[in-house]
Amino acid sequence: MVEWHDIVWFKKAVPRHLFLLWMAVQQKLTTQDKLHRFGIHGPNGCSLCLRHNEDHKHLFFECSYTKAIWWDVCDRCDIPRMIKGWDEWIRWATVSWHGKSFVNFSRKLSFAATVYHVWQERYARIFVGMSRTSNLVFNQIECIIRDKLDLMRNVVPTNENKRIQRAWRVNNINS
After folding, report:
1. How far, in whole angstroms, is CA 41 from its chain's centroid?
2. N or C: which terminus of the chain carries fewer CB neighbours within 10 A?
3. Which CA distances in Å does 109 have to 5, 69, 96?
4. How confident is the prediction along the chain (175 residues), in pLDDT tens digits per residue?
5. Quick count: other Cβ atoms within 10 Å of Cβ 39?
C-alpha cells in the first residue's frame, strides 16, 4: 500500500472526487506537459492563470487561480498556509491526517473536492469554452463540503470540531 492511501481512499467521500484525486496524486492526469510529451502539440499554457506552463504541480498548487481556492479551503479547514508545493502538500497531509476524526475527514474531503473542481474548471475552459472565477469554484466546493459535513451525525462537540463546522457553515453543529 502506498503511503498516501489514507488521504485518497476514505469512507463517506464523493467517489468521483476520490478517483480524480488518486489520478492527480500519481500525476497521471493528461495535463498539457504530458500531451506534449506524447507528441500532441497545442497550447502548453495553463488554462486557469494563462501565465505558466501546465503540469500537475503548477495546476494543482502553484497556479495563482488555484492558489486562491486553496487559501480559502485552508482557512476553512484550519490548515496552515506554510506548505510550498504539491509534493510537500501530499507528504504533509499523509503524515498529518491520520485517523478518522471529524477534522481529518473534513480536510480529506476538502482536498479531494478542490482537486476535482480545479480539474473540472480546466476541462470547462479547454473543451466547453466556459470559465468561472475562483470564487465561484470555491462556492461550489463549499456547498459540497457543507452538505457532506451536515450529514455527519454524532460529531463530538470539541472546540476544534465546532470551529470547522462553523467555518463551513454546517447546520447541525450540536447533532
Report:
1. 28
2. N
3. 14, 14, 14
4. 788 989 999 999 999 999 999 999 998 988 876 666 767 666 778 999 999 988 888 999 899 999 999 999 999 999 887 767 888 889 999 999 988 899 999 999 999 999 999 999 999 999 999 999 999 999 999 999 999 999 998 899 999 999 999 999 998 765 4
5. 6
Contact status, residue 153 vs residue 175, Cβ threshold 8 Å? yes
Rounded Cα gap, residues 117 and 33, in angstroms = 20
Query: Any idea of the CA torsion for 58, 148, 160, 166, to the nearest 10 degrees?
Result: 100
Please, are residues 166 and 145 in contact by the beta-carbon 8 Å criterion? no
Among candidates 42, 65, 45, which has minimal Cα distance to 54?
Answer: 45
- Domain spans, the chain: 12-38+51-167
Collapse the DSSP code of 48 into the 3-class scheme (helix H, G, I; strand E, B; otherwise coil) and give the result.
Answer: coil
